[in-house]
Amino acid sequence: MEIMMTKLADLATSLVVRLQLAREEGQTLVEYSLIIAVVSVLLVGALTGLRGSIEGVFTEIEGAF
Questions:
Q1: Between 43 and 12, where is the model more confident?
Q2: From residue 26, how far is each of 11, 16, 21, 38 by CA, in Å?
Q3: What are the phi and psi torsion angles at 50 (to 5°)?
């Protein structure tokens, strides 16, 4: 009986460790997704704000040829 309880405890510990690892991997994926989303929004905002300057540079290049 004692051996069976030990094996059951080992199995339970193994399952808890596996679930914890899976949960951490999921959290990491969500964190990276949020970082990518924030960087994307910032890039769109920056490019929108610099739109006039960027158009001016391309207009000067076009006029040089």
A1: 43
A2: 23, 15, 9, 19
A3: -95, 10
Which tokens go with 30? 């969500």
Task: Extract the tokens encoding 7.
Answer: 């094996």
pTM score, whole prediction: 0.52
Backbone φ, ψ for residue 33 (5° rounding): -65, -40
* Amino acid identity, position 62: E
Domain ranges of the chain: 2-64
The CA–CA distances, whole Å, from 31 to 15, 23, 36, 52, 63 equal 24, 12, 9, 34, 46
Q: Do 52 and 59 form a contact (C-beta atoms < 8 A)?
A: no
